[in-house]
Amino acid sequence: MTFRSTAFSVALSTALLTFMVGLPHAARAAARPFEPLRINCGGGTIKDRLTGHVWLSDKNYVVRGKKYRFNQRLNLKEAQEPAPELVYQSVRRANLNYRIRSVADGTYLVRLHFVDGKQQAERSMDFWIEGEHLLQNFSPREAAGSSNRAYIYEAVVQVKDGNGLDIRGTRGRGDDVFLSGIEVLPAPAGAPLTRPPLASPSAPADLAQQLRDFAEGPARVVWTRTEDEEDFYLKGGTGVLYGYDTEDGKGERAILSDIRSYASPMLTPDGRQVVFTDQTKHKCYVVGFDGAGLRELSAGYASDIWEDPSTGTTWVYVRTGWRDVKAPVRRFRLDDPSVSEEVWTKSGTGQPQTAWFHLSGDGKLAADAFPWPQCGLADLGSGEFKVMGKGCWPAVAPDSSHRSFYFIGQHTGVQFFDTPQATPRTINLATVPGWTGRKVYHPRWTNDVRFVTLTAPQWMPETELYIGRFDAGFTEVESWFRVTYNHTADFFGDAWFAASSKHNAPSKPGSGSTGLLAQSNENGLPGTVFVWENERSRNVITAPDGKVLRSWSARYEGATRPNRWFGALIRQGSLRPDEDAAPAFGRAAATSGAFSFALDLEPASTSGKQEATVLSLANSKEKPILELIQNQATLSVAVTDKDRKPVKLALGEVTPGTSTQVVVTYTSGQLVGYRDGKEKARISAACEPAEWDATTLVFGNDVLRSRPWEGSLENIRLLDRAVSAGEVATLNERSVKTRQGRQTAARVVVEAELLQASEPDEPATIAPYVRSLGENVYKVKRVLSGQLEDTEIIVLQWVVLGGQTLASSEREEGHVYRLELESADSHPELTGEHRSTDIFEPVMNVYYDVSL
Prior knowledge:
Number of domains: 4
Number of strands: 60
CATH architecture of the largest domain: 6 Propeller
Shape: globular
Helix content: under 10%
Radius of gyration: 30 Å
CATH superfamily of the largest domain: TolB, C-terminal domain
C-alpha cells in the first residue's frame, strides 16, 4: 500500500493525534496535534534543503543497534518521497530496536527507509512494528531492484499501550539487518491497519507427543527467556525461568516469572528441581520444577549437579569466587548445603562470565577449562588434568564412557573425544534446520549421553532452544528437535529424560579406570617457580611424584596473539603472566639467594632504533630488577646489584626469524649466560634477590610499556636456584625437540578485491574474548608472489585484538588490497579463536592474512 503526499496533507489537517515528550499519558489528549517525526538512523541531525524537513539524530530513540555507513553513490530517482541522501548513507544494524516514547496512542503511517550498499549479500530481514511481524524475509536490494537504490516501506500501525512506538529488526535467516531512516506521520483518514503477510511460527499442538517420541519417553526441559539477546550469559536481571514437561499438559510455562538473572539453569538427576545462578546476586539457588520451594544454596556460580551412584547423595558443584577463575570449586549437598567439600584447587577453571566444571557419570572425571581457553579433563582422584585443546563450553558424558567435547571458537561445532587419549574429530553443530552454517551457543550434554541442548542462532531474538540427538557412533547430530517458538531469545537449555538410565550404562570406549590422565613429568625440574611453555601446554609445576602443585597462565595484551606453534607472537603488546608470578619468584629467589630463567625467543627484527625488552621483572616502584634486552642485533641481560646499579651480561647477536634458547643463571656472585645449550658469557656480580621487592613480570615490553619488543616467545621458565651446565643442555635438547619438524607455511602475496566484508563484533559483546577474526570474501586480481589457483577466497583477518577494534577492519567493498596469505589449515592456533562472520556455508578455500 502506497500513500501520496496529498493523502498526507488531508491527514495533517484532520488528525488530532498528539505528540510530546515526557508528559503523563493522561495529559496527552490535551496536547497539540501530532507533528511528523523523522529519524536519521545511525547519523546526526540534518535538514533537507528541498523540503525543510528535519531528520533528527536517533540517539534519543535507539535501544540497540550498531552504527554503520555504506558510503556508495545512491539512486533515489525511483523512490517516492525519499529522504535526503545523507540519511541513506548511515544505518543502524545488528538486531536493532527503536522505542519512540514521544508517540502517543493512536494510528500512524510509519515509513521505513532502506538502501543496501553491498553488491553481494544474503538479506532476509524481519521487522516488527508494535509487535506486529510486518516485514518477513525482507531484502532491500530485491525490493528496490538492485543495490544502492532506496526503498521505502510503508505501514499503517496502531499504538495503544501507552508506551510509545516500538520498532524492532532482526536479520532473520540472512546475514544482517539495517535501517536508514524512520518517519512517523499521521495516518490517512480511514486507512486500514497493515497486517502481517504470514503468521509467525508457533509451537505445534502435539509438541509434547513429538518430544516424547524423540526422547523415547517422558522429558522435561528448562531454560531462560530474555528480552536482551546480547546478554547470553544472563549477567543482567532480564530473564524469566521457563520449563516444559511432556506429561503435565501445560505446555511451556514460567517456573519463576520474576524478572532476574537465571544463568545456567540445570535439572536435578530426578528432574524434580532446578538449580540456577543469579549473576546479579552472585549466588546460586534451587527451586522445584513447579516453582515452589525457592532457596539459596551458596555464594558462587553453580556448574553441575551430580548424584553419587554409591550413596545416592546429590551434590551441586560451585565455583566459589565471583568471576574469579582461580577460586576453588566446592560441592554442596543439595538437601543440606551446610555440608560442603573442596573439589578442585590445582588450577584456575572456566572463564569469568560462567562456570563449566562438569562431571562424568562415575564422578571420576570433570570437564572444564584450566583456565579458559585451555579446555580439558581433570582426574578428581589423582588431581591430574589434561589440556585437550583451545575452546569453550567443555563437557564430559553423563555416563561412564568418559567421552568428552569442547566448543570450538567458530561456535559452529565441537571437538569430540571418544576417550581422553583419543584423536578428536569435529562434529558440526551448525546443522540446525533453518540455521545451517550459523553460529550456535550454550551446548550442554543432558542427563542422557545421546542428547545435547543448544540455542540457535547466536545473538538474535529468534534464538530458540533445540535438542540434538547423536548418531550411534557419535559422529554427527542425526536429528534436531525444536523446543521453543517465539521471537524472544531463549538461552541456557538443559533437558532431563526418563529413559536416560538405559542409555547411560558404563560402556566402551571409556574404561572407567583410574589414572586416565597420567602425564609425563615434563615440568618436574626442581626449583621451578613459574612455567609457560605455550598456550596449549598445561604449564604446571609438579612434585617429584608427578602430582600437580600449581598451574600458571599468561594473557596476551595489545596485538599479541598465538603463533602457529601456540607460543606468543608479540606484536604491539606483551605477554602478562598471572599477577602473583613476580611475587612468587621474588620470594623464592630471596630465600635461596639464587635464580635462573630460560626461554626460547625468535626476534621479528634487529633494526630497531631503541632498546627492546624481552623480559622485565620490576619492583613496586616500577623500577627494573632483572631484564633481558635486545638492542638491534645484540642480546644482553641486566640485573640490579646490591648497590642498585645494573650489571650487564652480553649474550651475543640474534637473527630475525631464527629461534634461540637463552638461559641465565645466578648463584654465589656469578652471573652466567647460555645460548642454545652452551655457555656464552659470565661475570662476577653481587646480586641481592632478598632486596628485590618483585611485584611485576612482563614479557615483550617493560612494565611502563615504553620499550616494546616484537617476536615469538615460548618455553619460559623461572627457577629459584642456579642450574648446571648439564641441566642447561637438557633444557636445550627439549627445546630443539619441540621445534623439530616445524616447516614454514607456503605464502602467497596477492592483490584482491574485497567482495564481502563481515562486520566486526563489538568487543563488549564478545567478552571475555579479546580477539576476533573477521571472515571476508575476496576476488583475486593478481598474484604477486607464490602460487594460488583460487579466484574467490575467504580470508581471515584480525578485526579485534587486545579488546580493541582495529582501524584496518574498516575495509570497503570494491576496493583492491594487498594481502599476504597462508592456508588457514596451516594455522591450528586459529581454531579456538572467535570469528566475526556474516558468511554462512562457505564453499571457498580459507586463507589467513599474516600481514596484520
